[in-house]
Amino acid sequence: MAKVVYEGWMVRYGRRKIGRSYIHMRYFVLESRLLAYYKKKPQDNVVPIKTLLIDGNCRVEDRGLKTHHGHMVYVLSVYNKKEKYHRITVRDLFPILKF
Question: How far is CA 3 from CA 8, 22, 24, 32, 93, in A?
Answer without folding.
Answer: 16, 34, 28, 8, 22
